[in-house]
Amino acid sequence: MTTLRPFTCDDLFKFNNVNFDPLTETYGLSFYTQYLAKWPEYFQLAESPSGHIMGYSTYTEQEYFHYLNDCLLVMGKVEGHLDNWHGHVTALTVSPDYRRLGLAALLMSFLEDISEKKRAYFVDLFVRKSNEVAINMYTNLGYIIYRTILEYYSGDQDEDAYDMRKAMSRDVNKKSVIPYTQPITMRELRRQMSRDH
Question: For residue 92, which of 113, 77, 75 has the smallest C-alpha distance?
Fold first, then answer.
């Protein structure tokens, strides 16, 4: 049986092989410890009966999912003001051996429940436009493509991201999920985020 449990500092030394996935964004230890210190209730992992980490997610009322050793984990935070108060999925990852078992949906549900309890209007996440498997999964979980962010991911070839959203029950009129028709740049996104904080 899979166990969901809070992420601990010791888990930081167990998830490197999960982070080798090319679609997983990796961060420095300070990033993970910051989330763990500020939003521990949004930092969860899924563990197999043998104690292997199957995946994890961090959620920032904004949330975050990422891969661990043999684990699924969720990590995140809440942010925004007024009707932009929302949860954010920073990353979602499941170890390759544990994919297609519904673990990502389980962690997303966990993060959405936290967002509901925090009275968020919506949950959002960013995903590479090329990551069709993830886009289909999020769509099946009720997320919509809210807008495109140009060159969000940097690397050998910069790549656009979709900002996907799902309205929570507080957004009765579903205003948070009315899609933008034009893509935005990173500069415009930063400006919007600084206004909303």
Answer: 75
